[in-house]
Amino acid sequence: MPVWMVEQVRKIVDPLPRAYEESAWVGVRWRIGSATVAHLFGGEDGLIRITLRGEPDEVAAFEHLGGPYFRAGWGDNVIGMVLDDGTDWSEVGELLLDSYCLQAPEGLAAQVQRPDAAPEPGQA
Length: 124
What we know:
globular, Aspartate Aminotransferase, domain 1, 4 helices, alpha+beta, 32% helix
């Protein structure tokens, strides 16, 4: 697995309250308590993937977007991306923060500064 990709995820997740990194059965995962925030791993096909937790509407969107996005085949709220040299790391960062906030206890999630949501259509 490319070290630079691990470093990119580490840079985003490690500063989050009580988040920690550990080796997984394959690749590396980041957790809060016993809940997985993100799992970065390589496949037999040579592609690098990251899986995270997402809101139900994100999961539905990922199912229909196609590559590099996918809905993981396990869990109700697991989404993923294939990562490569063209990956938008700002987007990955937002997804990682969302995943952390979904998995963390409410008090810890409240400590995370997330990017402002876009205004609803017709609102400024």
